[in-house]
Every structure is written in C-alpha cells, then in structure tokens.
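Minutes, project huddle
Topic: does the predicted pose make sense with zinc ion bound?
PN asked that the exact inputs be recorded in the minutes so nobody has to dig through chat later. Recorded below.
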Amino acid sequence: MDDKDNLTSVLYGVRDLRLEQRPIPEPGINEVLLRIQRVGICGSDVHYLVHGSIGHYIVKEPMVIGHEASGIVVKLGEGVTNLSVGDRVAIEPGVSCRMCQFCKIGKYNLCPGMKFCATPPFDGNLTRYYVHAADFCYKLPEYMTLEEGAMLEPLSVGVHACKRGGVTVGSSVLILGAGPIGLVTLATAKAMGASKIFITDLTEFRLNVAKKMGAFKVIKINKEESDEQAIENVRIELNNELPDVTIDCSGFQQTMKMGIELTKSGGVLTIVGMGASRNVELPLFNALSREVDIRGVFRYANDYQDALSLIASGKVDLSPLVTHHFTIEESLEAFKTAETGIGDPIKVMIHCDKDA
Ligand code: NAD
Ligand code: ZN
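Predicted holo structure (tokens), as shared on screen:
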C-alpha cells in the first residue's frame, strides 16, 4: 500500500479537536486493516468534545473520536478467515474480552474488559485507516450502502431496546424522545410488528420525521409544562390506552416518571436515554404496585446482525435520518452542526475516504 495519508480527528481535551496525521496501523492476529468510509456523529462524541467526560469516563490522553463507522477491508491480519480484502463492512465498535462470564453467556455488552471506540482510554475510528477485530466486522451485502453500514450502530441500540422491552406483533409502544435513537427505535418497533407507536419530543421537526417514518401518533411536549402536566397531557393523547412497552430515549426525570406512570400494568419500561445527569426521583410505588418492569439498556449485544437484516430486507429505511454530510477535513464544522442543531440535523455523517 502506497498511501501514507492517515488523517485522523483527535480529541485532546474540552473543545480541542485536532486533525493530525498518524501512522497507518498494522493488523495483528485476527484483526483487519480498514479504509474507513463513513462515520456518524453520536451525541456522546459531542459530549466528550464539549465536556471532556461522560460519567466516570474522562478523556485524559488524546483520543481519536468516532464510533459509528463503516469501512472497506484493505489488509488481513494473521488468522482472519471470515473476511477478504475488498469487503465492505459495518464496524461494531465495542470489542469484548470473549473470556469472562458475561461474554460466555452472550451478554458481552456487560464485559468489564470491553474496549469501546472513543470511550476513554480507547481510540475511535474517525480516521482514514483503522484496525479492528475481524469478528466485530459485518460484511455488507452489495445492495447495502456504506452509510447504512455506519447507521447499524445506532440501529443496534434500537434493536436491543426493543428486544429488552419485549416488543412483538401487536404491541403498543410509547417512545419518549425522537432523536436518532428514538427514531431508530421507532423503525425497529414497527419492523418487529408493533401495531401502534406513539412518540414524544420537544421539537416539531423531529416529530415530523417520526410521522413520516410511520408513527401512529406524535405528541409534542411543551418545555414549560410541569412533569405532572406533561404526563397528564400525554395520557390524554394516548386516549387512556396505556402502551404495553415504553422506551425512554431521552432519559430525564420527567420522561422516566412518565414511563412509569403511563405504561400499562404488567408492562415494561425500558430506559435507553442518559439525559439525567444526577439521581432522579421516581414514583417507584406506582411501578411496583402495577408490576411495571423497569429495564436498562446498555448499547447492544448480538444485535448487529439483526440490525443488518432489518435494513437488508428493506424492513427498515434509515435514509430520512441522515441529514448532513461533511468530509473528515471538515470535522470541526460537522461537530458544530451536531452540537448547535443549526439546520435541524438528525444524523451528521462524515466521509473519510478522499477517493470515494
Ligand atoms: P438526542 O439528544 O439527539 O435526542 C434526544 C431527544 O429527546 C431530543 O430530540 C429532545 O428534543 C428529546 N427530549 C428532551 N427532553 C424531552 C422530554 N422531556 N420529552 C420528550 N422528548 C424529550 O440523543 P440521541 O442520540 O437520540 O440519544 C438519546 C439518548 O440515548 C441520549 O441520552 C443518549 O446518551 C442515550 N444513548 C444511550 C445508549 C445506551 O446504550 N443506553 C446508547 C446510545 C444513546
Ligand atoms: Zn468479557
């Protein structure tokens, strides 16, 4: 390979994202070298840029940003048999240890040895060349785009959330928040056979996208209303028919409270959103006395292939979500768009291959 250009977006600290050249890495045993194609910007990437940390994950050393990526295999490390040079792949960004009890039972998202792209101290993949474990790369069928490959990352969160919530044929589902995660959850719930999907958000624009993607009813939350008012207003919009499953894709005190109070007795509240930055007060008596199960969601495990199938089969179309495009050279502008929301972005996509 003659290319020496490995332009990379590196986060040095709060509001300090730099483009720099890095050596092209060599794939080790069971790894592949990828020419990165598309990288979507996630809220967590923006959070690291603006705050330098998420919870106890703190950027202490320069860290390559980005984790929603697709690429093309350019070199195989020793022992790789599942991929060939030229394959287009989606990259599952978390590589677990494959040895611990969680890995062995298939809940590898809970692996304490997880190495997840752009979660400190591990580098991400907003770069031109990147090495990844071959068993966490998923070959894309030729009719799937590299953009769809990158979108498998957020889609897998939606798939995991719907599985955790027990969404199935005929379910009624309430989704709280219509950001990228709420919208991929909507698409997944629909594909899994949910009959009625209600979705809330603060912004009209995102709710319009939800409507186009097949929401049964979109419900606008007014920022000024109290938690109690918001809950009562949504109850009225639901026509008092409480959903079997509520999936909180924003994660604030108000939405978690709403999730408890507005889920049908015996139903499930799944919490994906991490909006609340501190402890919240919840009506737990309401949950226990009506047997509403509260379940957490942490990323995904064994969901990438299902997400791929949803797109490959045409059951899910995420193209309405990708609203903005930039090159890796324009990383700063891309992050600015994602952070400020100017121009109503949903998913901002960065193109990393200068020849593509
Ligand atoms: P986002 O910020 O783009 O979307 C959140 C949406 O919620 C916004 O559109 C916002 O207008 C809306 N919202 C805010 N307050 C609301 C309220 N009171 N009622 C209804 N809607 C409200 O974020 P995203 O990328 O869609 O991600 C959603 C959440 O999921 C984030 O908190 C993110 O950190 C989290 N997340 C969790 C996991 C996980 O593994 N658990 C994975 C990915 C993302
Ligand atoms: Zn493990």
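Observations noted during the meeting:
- The first strand starts at residue 7 and ends at 13.
- The pocket of zinc ion (ligand 2) is lined by residues 96-97, 99-100, 102-103, 108, 111, 113 (CB under 6 Å).
No decisions taken; revisit at the next huddle.
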